[in-house]
Amino acid sequence: VDAKPLLKKLPELMGSLGGRKYLLLFQNDAELRATGGFITAYAIFDINKGKLTVERSDDIYKLDEAKKRQFPAPEKILTYHKDVRNYQLRDSNLSPDFVTSIQSFESLLKDADVDLGAYQAVIALDTHVLVSTVKILGEFNIAGRSFSADSDKRCDCPKVIYELEDYATRPVAFIRDDRKGVIGALLYQIMQRALGVSPSQYWGKLFQMFIDESKQKHILFYFKDSEAQKGIEALNFGGRIHDFDGDYLHINNVNFAGAKSNLFVENSVLQEIERQGNNLVKTVTLSYKNPAPPSNCNLEAGQLCLNGILRNWLRVYVPKGSELIEFKGSELKNQTYEELGKTVFEGFLTVKPQGASEVKLKYKLPQDISAKKDLKMLIQKQPGTLEHEYQINNQSRQEKIILDTDETFSF
Known about the structure:
This protein is α+β, with helices and mostly antiparallel strands. Helix content is about 25%, strand content about 35%. The chain has ten helices and 23 strands. The chain has a six-stranded mixed β-sheet with strand order 17-18-15-12-20-23, with no helix packed on it. A six-stranded mixed β-sheet has the order 16-19-14-13-21-22. A five-stranded mixed β-sheet has the order 3-2-1-6-11, sandwiched between helices. α1 (about 5-15) crosses α9 (about 225-235). It starts with a helix and ends with a strand. The model is unreliable at about 170-175 (pLDDT under 50).
């Protein structure tokens, strides 16, 4: 029912009245960023009366190079990133709220000497979507490489992920102009195979996969049309930070120059809730563990640098008005401020290969939440994350889940 505005617009969005353009952003979740991953490539595709055509695809670095001038990097990049002084499109998804990040992206895009045309929406997807698609459509062969969903022992990850990383990031002794152009070639072949056959062969499985990936925030949507956007947000496919009448938690991790270490780092979160007089006090423990051996990241060695030291900018979003009691484990001075209608506790940590790190926060919930007999809690998942374990302990019961999508609890 809530999605009705989107459903009414769907024929128009699929080009019933003429061509509709969409900007597709590829986010590499192996290098986790606020909205799901490092923006590595983009594509513009057109839908006209249901027919899809890829107009262009390219490396995000090419789009950055097309900017007419350089912009100074924001304070957060200067503080937490490594040797980055300019603000680039590829680093613009700093906000955990997808619409806010896209607005930052578009403010930089205005200065680029590239005409992408008037697109009707921005769609971001990560490598999990790619793997799920290849599982349905089968193996692809591009540029002498095999892209499949089979596990690759070199990274303990799907082969399609390893091959993309190897092609795009391994140091070579020559200038590779189109480092990430293989993504565009793969996109063309995927569309050709998916759409060039009988609908009964793939479309049902692909549509179900598309819904599941959107629910799990591996696909995010931002429509320019307000009614369509209203429907997207009703389905919770918009990557928004939500208002909530009760306890709230969103943990946002950003990998700044830590190689592709999010392929290997395991995350778990423990929340302990206790009543102290008239107050509810929470202790949140964040555990990071990297069991894999380090990659040889020496440029002269010419090896593929996947597993390096994770440099993690951490933000914990909690109910507005929460009071910090203790913050342990941050390697830089922690900060507290308000953003997106929440109180934010911010810090920074590193995780070495075959190592572990832990951050512990203790804070008091606002009085209007503490005074309620029943406690409601919303935990919002970070896009691009996979199999993060959450445990909640209070005086009456325990809950333990793998956070695949946003979850609401009542105690």
